Amino acid sequence: MAQRIVIENCAIATVDADDTEYASGYMVVADNRIESLGAGKAPEGLEDVVRRIDATGHLVTPGLVNTHHHFYQWLTRGLATDHNLFNWLVALYPTWARIDEQMTYTAAQGSLATLARGGVTTALDHHYVFPKGSGDLSGAIIRAARETGIRFTLARGSMDRSEKDGGLPPDFAVETLEGALAATEATVDEHHDDSFDAMTQVAVAPCSPFSVSTELMQQGAELARRKGVRLHTHGSETVEEEQFCKELFGMGPTDYFESTGWLGEDVWMAHCVHMNDSDIAAFARTKTGVAHCPSSNARLAAGIARVPDMLAAGVPVGLGVDGTASNESGELHTELRNALLINRLGAHREAALNARQALRLGTYGGAQVLGRAREIGSLEPGKLADLVLWRLDTLAHASIADPVTALVFGAAAPVTASFVGGRQIAENGRLLHVDEDAIARSTREEARRLARIAAQG
Ligand SMILES: [Zn+2]
């Protein structure tokens, strides 16, 4: 028998295909799915109602979907703060190369807790640093996600182009081609779930053209397609990357991706800042997705991605926090605002993005690039009950009439409740299944331990 939760008296932004909204509406959740929603009060006579929430003063939206992150960087926030991407990578790789299983687990806890308390219901970690003998890092990250209660994709990364081959990472921080492929395949076999309500999925995710061999790009794509999982990497992040690709491969990043099998509807790429018209057309033609990371791009002075042009061309676009060594806040709800504001500094000025488009990037757009738009990303009957109650009747937002404008243009809104598959994971900005204060303490201890080990060289 279905257990029902009824949410009433709230504004609802469904982010469905028609952008349907209700100024005052209701939603009925039955077990892990949305059963019904609409204007006014919930239908009378519903059976097995275990909870009734009066959400007066709230906006209900789909849970936010994060499409790009590096959890391990939680332990190296606030370092190399005035660097561009390449100098920042060179400064931090020697420290990153010293991570172990306990550090990785703790960093994942910190990253996940911050995402979840801010309205993220589907998280992603692109993890690509696997130092020799460092333990089961993928297993540790997935364990942390399960404990938080969040829906999760592990993008199992890899690097095999170190300093001796013209790459940026130190030699001891990379895997061999064969080792990386075998470990990635084993991670897919052990953890990937392709069911409708999957809590854990795995993607194949070599780090970037400048830290990965052409063979690993090609064979990684073949592996992903053989296994039926998605492909993720970094692309076209900086001017320097474009020059690197031209010198090494004789072509720009998008052509290089195409030549290695890395354009397609099962691929999404982080950043895509330096894209010309034909690059955008190639992404649109192949339905390759983009993880837009506005704060990180600003932090590293990478530039402004052409999101309005991508959307106009039909490219799927989601939002990403990116690693917290280049976005110390680690919060996704602030990225709605930053995506809107930063894109208005680009060519389209005030017409670049509006509040509803920004909300769509952080919800449905994210679900699209993760290949989960059938299940999540909008509030519609039959979809999974991944949703957030944002409180908009306090000092921060009460004088703003339109709730979506308040959420996107206003200060970060308090999260009263957040549900993943009908299970509540956060209440009044606190997490229900993990101890936030204990996580804060252990992240400080592990960050100090990593700094100490790295200082020994
Ligand atoms: Zn990244």
TrEMBL record:
<keyword id="KW-0378">Hydrolase</keyword>
<dbReference type="GO" id="GO:0046872">
    <property type="term" value="F:metal ion binding"/>
</dbReference>
<protein>
    <submittedName>
        <fullName>8-oxoguanine deaminase</fullName>
    </submittedName>
</protein>
<feature type="domain" description="Amidohydrolase-related">
    <location>
        <begin position="59"/>
        <end position="422"/>
    </location>
</feature>
<dbReference type="Pfam" id="PF01979">
    <property type="entry name" value="Amidohydro_1"/>
</dbReference>
<dbReference type="InterPro" id="IPR050287">
    <property type="entry name" value="MTA/SAH_deaminase"/>
</dbReference>
<dbReference type="GO" id="GO:0016814">
    <property type="term" value="F:hydrolase activity, acting on carbon-nitrogen (but not peptide) bonds, in cyclic amidines"/>
</dbReference>
<dbReference type="InterPro" id="IPR032466">
    <property type="entry name" value="Metal_Hydrolase"/>
</dbReference>
<keyword id="KW-0862">Zinc</keyword>
<dbReference type="InterPro" id="IPR006680">
    <property type="entry name" value="Amidohydro-rel"/>
</dbReference>
<dbReference type="GO" id="GO:0019239">
    <property type="term" value="F:deaminase activity"/>
</dbReference>
<dbReference type="InterPro" id="IPR011059">
    <property type="entry name" value="Metal-dep_hydrolase_composite"/>
</dbReference>
<keyword id="KW-0479">Metal-binding</keyword>
